[in-house]
Write a structure and sequence with these properties.
globular; 3 helices; 5 strands; single chain; 106 residues; two-stranded antiparallel ribbon; alpha+beta
Length: 106
């Protein structure tokens, strides 16, 4: 797990602040090579990494598979819908082989 910011950036006008320019600069220093899959939590983080895609739409960027998921914070209401939970479970389960060293599921 890697966070873009090492410290909480504070409050913004409509919730938590997310200094996008700073996030882009930090994201550019994070080496994603050699990772079979990177899950980006939230649209702001996805934008910082240059992965401008919808939720659960796979993107290949610099040879790395990226998947954007809704941010798991309490402010994101996407996770409150049972249909969305089911959708996320199916899609993330399909990626499970990428999480194991031998690419096989238990």
């Amino acid at each position: 797990t890697t966070n873009v910011f090492t410290r909480y950036p504070g409050q913004g006008k409509n919730g938590d602040a997310f200094p996008l320019r700073r996030a882009k600069n930090i994201a550019a220093t994070i080496d994603l090579s050699g990772r079979p899959l990177v899950i980006l939590a939230g649209k702001n983080v996805a934008c910082a990494f240059g992965a401008n895609a919808g939720f659960f739409a796979p993107v290949i960027l610099h040879g790395v598979l990226l998947v954007v998921v809704p941010h798991p914070s309490g402010r994101c209401r996407w996770w409150n819908d049972p249909a969305n939970i089911k959708h996320a479970r199916v899609l993330l389960s399909s990626l499970r082989p990428l999480f194991t060293d031998d690419h096989s599921s238990p």
